[in-house]
Amino acid sequence: MAADPPPEEFGVAEERSGHCAVIDGNCLYVWGGYVSIEENEVYLPNDELWIYEIDSGLWSMHLMKGELPPSMSGSCGACINGKLYIFGGFDDKGYSNQLYHVNLRTKNGIYVWKQITDFKGQPPTPRDKLACWVYKDRLIYFGGYGCRKQNELSDCFDVHDAFWEGQIFWGWHNDVHVFDTSTQTWYQPKIKRGIAPQPRAAHSCAVIGNKGYVFGGRVLVCTQYPLIFL
Questions:
Q1: Maximum CA pair distance of the chain?
Q2: Over residues 215-228, mean pLDDT
Q3: What percent of the chain has pLDDT over 90?
Q4: Which fold has domain 1-109?
Q5: What is the 3-state secondary structure (H, E, C) of the chain?
Q6: What average pLDDT does the structure give for the chain?
Q7: Which of 8, 85, 104, 172 is the most exposed place for a label (fewest CB within 10 A)?
Q8: Domain limits of the chain?
Q9: Residues near 82 by Cβ (< 8 Å), separated by ≥ 6?
Q10: Does the record bear DNA repair in its keywords (predicted)?
Q11: Which residues neighbour 72 within 8 Å (Cβ) at sequence distance 6 or greater?
């Protein structure tokens, strides 16, 4: 006998920052983030999915099950074929480079997280405040703020601070990483021409046709660049 779906709670989603929000069909889905309470950042529950029905204007909260991501802020959320993918983020333990997904088009009202661990290739280094283009069945991630070890430093990383005892460096990225959802494979595409945007975090990305645009970002100069997906 199938399990009953968890109860819904109707109301309004809490105010928050650093959350993920995606559109699928006529619904807006919101997960994660934090709220400031007396100058402290409190991460919001990782088992809550808030859904806003655009036609009715109603909010509802659904409890989630499965392999729950940690409560985080600055994760990057994107939707492909009715699945919400969450990558990266920051919590009390530091930066993440884990990838999770959940089916938003559930027929029984149960939302189940699954961590993607059986992938091929190498994921990006841990980071938050990155952005993502969705193109065909691919998630294309760009930038973000995070940490690297000394042997991981490269031209695509702008060092902001360092902890010399453990040889850990913090800073901004401008590398591009692709996750192919159809083959469960991470890879880095070769950049053949053009001048790459400067390393940045907290920027935004959008796709028009086969061109991806990145705009703005924290610390570095706000500017706009197109990338062509071939």
A1: 58
A2: 61
A3: 70
A4: Neuraminidase (2.120.10)
A5: CCCCCCCEEEECCCCCECCEEEEECCEEEEECCEEEECCEEEECCCCEEEEEECCCCEEEEEEEEECCCCCCECCEEEEECCEEEEEEEEECCEEEEEEEEEECCCCCCCEEEEECCCCECCCCCCEECCEEEEECCEEEEEEEEEEEEHHHCCCCEEEEEEECCCCEEEEEEEEEEEEECCCCEEECCCCCCCCCCCCEECCEEEEECCEEEEECCECCCCCEEEEECC
A6: 89
A7: 8
A8: 1-109, 118-229
A9: 24, 103, 104, 105
A10: no
A11: 18, 32, 43, 46, 89, 90, 91, 96, 128
Structure tokens at 160: 């902001």
Asked if residue 19 lies in contact with residue 30, where contact means CB atoms within 8 angstroms, the answer is yes
pLDDT of 210 reads 92
| Predicted local confidence at residue 160, as pLDDT | 79
Residue 161 has pLDDT above 70, yes or no: yes
Report the amino acid identity of residue 151.
Answer: N
pLDDT at 153 over 90: no
pTM strictly above 0.90: no
Query: Residues in the chain, how many?
Result: 230
- b/e burial code for range 83-109 (CB count within 10 A of at least 16 → b): bbbbbbbbbeeebbbbbbbbebeeeee
pLDDT digits (tens, 9 = 90+) for 187-214: 999 887 788 888 999 999 999 999 999 9
Instruction: Please compute the mean of the pLDDT values over residues 73-100 and round it to a whole number.
Output: 96
- Cβ atoms 170, 160 nearer than 8 A: yes
C-beta neighbour count of 22 within 10 angstroms: 19
